[in-house]
Amino acid sequence: MRALVTVLEEDGRRGKRLVHDWPEYTDEPRANEIKARNIYSGVTNGTERNNMLGGNYSRPDHELPSNEGYQSVGEVIAVGPEVEDLSLGDLGFIGAHSGTQRSPAGHVEFVTIAEDDLVLKLPDDVDPVHAALFGMGGVAMRSCRNAELRMGERLLIVGGAGCIGQMAAQIASVMGARVTIGDVAGGRLDLARAIGAAESVVDVSGDGWDRHIGEGAYDAVIDFAGVPGMEDKMITCVRLQGRVILVAGRWEVNYTFRTGQAQEITIKQNSHFDRDDLRNLCRLVGRGLVKIAPLIQDVVPADEAPGIYATLRDDSSQLMGTVFQW
To answer: 3 Cβ partners below 8 Å, 6+ apart?
Structure first.
């Protein structure tokens, strides 16, 4: 089958190629599994860029070529004998597997997965192109729920102008939080202002953090950037007994214990997402309370992926939401 795979190029850098002979499970779905033909798949900008750069949680070179990605939309083309909720022809979001999947999700032509895994039947009021970014939206939903936001609380989203941060700002606003987005990319900050979910959008490049982010000014911080050395700054900007939610992939967290002790903060690590996160995201998108359309920059055939991934690797600030058509 066709698949987008990461390869090691002759210059030693990683690239992406569309191959036509990627292994496929051709047997019929078993038990409560479905088989789907992918129609769209979305780029997971942060995770896939980490892999393109050979980052701290990427696959090692000796495991290449490999397939990555955790968000796609497919049409059900076969069902197992115990499937209850999905039927032939249904469209569904399909996320990365949680241990029960027999073929990879993401940028592949076909996928086989249990219907009670990260699968969500799409209602008519949700555009399947938008749903191709539900994986990142699921992370945003999980992050906001883990932040335990209350009406009127002040939330700072660090690295907030990327796809996940923009969706988190909208979700947090629906939950009643007063959102500030901090980022360094001017064009993305302009997009955040246009969407309007954040009450404040600030450029934290250079001395921007010190000028715009006050000590004890926030009830909670969600960090989608994962920039090393920012931990103490994030702790300092939350109030007494505030919360710091760490999302971006990293091997370790370093902060001054006495700084956190003085603030009596709670540091929480964010996991992936589950079906309940997806259901709630889908509900808000269907009602128009979370808007994904402004975040989608490119909808292109899968064979145009190598150029997209070269940009993701070399100048990621030029990309927002990307959806591949299969």
So the answer is: 18, 19, 22, 67, 104, 107, 108, 109
